[in-house]
Amino acid sequence: MTADRGTPHVHIIGAGLAGLSAAVRLAERGHSIALYEAAAQAGGRCRSFHDAKLDRLIDNGNHLMMTANTAILAYLDLIGARGGLTHPQAAVFPFLDLANGRSWNLRPNRGPIPWWVLDPKRRIPGTGVLSYLKGLRLAFAGSEDRVTDCLDTQDPLWRCFWEPLVIAALNTPANEASARLLRHVLAETFAKGEGACRPLVARHGLGPALVDPALAFLQDRGVAIRFNQRLRRLDTTGRRITALDFPNQAVELQEQDWVILALPPQAAQALLPNLAAPLDHHAIVNAHIRLPKAPDWPFAGAEGPVPEVPFLGLIGGTADWLFLRDDVVSLTVSAASRLAERPNDEIAAALWSDTARALGLDAGDQPPIRVINEKRATFAQTPAALRLRPAPRSAWDNLLLAGDWTDTGLPATIESAVRSGEAAAKALTLP
Ligand SMILES: Cc1cc2nc3c(=O)[nH]c(=O)nc-3n(C[C@H](O)[C@H](O)[C@H](O)COP(=O)(O)OP(=O)(O)OC[C@H]3O[C@@H](n4cnc5c(N)ncnc54)[C@H](O)[C@@H]3O)c2cc1C
Questions:
Q1: Which residues line ligand 1 (CB under 6 A)?
Q2: What is the predicted pLDDT for the residue at 3?
Q3: Residue ranges of the Amine oxidase domain (predicted)?
Q4: Which residue has the least CA distance to atom 12 on ligand 1?
Q5: CATH class entry, domain 49-88+199-206+281-379
Q6: Model confidence band, residue 2 (pLDDT cutoffs 50, 70, 90)
């Protein structure tokens, strides 16, 4: 259907995953909506673009999801795009320790009882059963506890499992990160067994997998999508939003109209100065390296064929994760606020060195590298910040909030963004 549905009743501001998730739910219900985005493209912190230096489509950063992310999968089913994500046949996370060359596969087993920790061949090298049992301390984490209050940082499991997990899942150093939030991640993933832990990766990039099909779904339903529209001001009368001010247009709201603000916390707070929001943040740095040709992937385990988009966890270097898409290697460093302050050529050199060591390439021949420095990748997921996460309903009767930073109970991830958009769409009552 391409017909215009008349005056929009729901104005969604922000076309990241939270805004797109709200939009597709409401479009499915037949509501008339308009979507406004400040940038020239949708996707926000989860986007793809053609990079002229590498002459390849690249993502702003590697994004790893898991089969536990049921909201993402439901979103993809709704827009008919489940095929954009791929996962290996089983949950296998290969790791390499660059400090000593040791490699292993983290392989949780089926079902909720983690018997794999009883098998010395499946345990992480240097760890014993006791290392894993100590993790049970997380079950008793208080609301103010940080991860390092609950876990033994001297145990060999710390460096090879807990610390990389905290950094990847919470993008916050472990001595700041909320222990309860980490417990929640474990409850949704490892505690459910292998089936919930299969790593989901965008086959051809984030835009083609998660963003473009949503835009097509919305366009097919006559939704107006307005790019280069940065909301500058919200006008209010009493407890209602009455107008939206964009650079080239002012939108007067009717009595029955709603607004969903699906913005990053800093942008939401700039528009609503009294809004309590978690504003401290951490960076994620990514580097994309175009190799002269696709290299062999040396980490195929005994668990099956090399996945479509192979990836590797790295310990003891600068990078945390390495992904390979044909001839492009992409590396991620999370909780990287200090690294993000260094010049790009230094970052590129450090990440190329990790790549050459991991893939056995000649380190002397540095290929073209694009560094992408997302300084505000996510909010700092500390106990204090979690208390500032707002519910979808705001102090204004016709304004709802969405975004990965709102109170979804999850870390600031795509799953959180998608769930927040769903929650906002659900909270809205229209004639
Ligand atoms: C490098 C990187 C790696 C990541 N890795 C992972 C990962 O591995 N797994 C995972 O699940 N998550 C990951 N994340 C987090 C994930 O990308 C975010 O949680 C998610 O994309 C947030 O979506 P959102 O819609 O809440 O916010 P955003 O994506 O920030 O969307 C907000 C949108 O609002 C727009 N906007 C801002 N101000 C205005 C305004 N005034 N008017 C109109 N529009 C405005 C912005 O341009 C943007 O498009 C990563 C993030 C980064 C940056």
A1: 13-19, 36-39, 44-46, 60-61, 63-65, 230-231, 262-264, 267, 284, 286, 374, 377-378, 403-404, 412-415, 417
A2: 35
A3: 17-428
A4: 413
A5: alpha beta
A6: very low
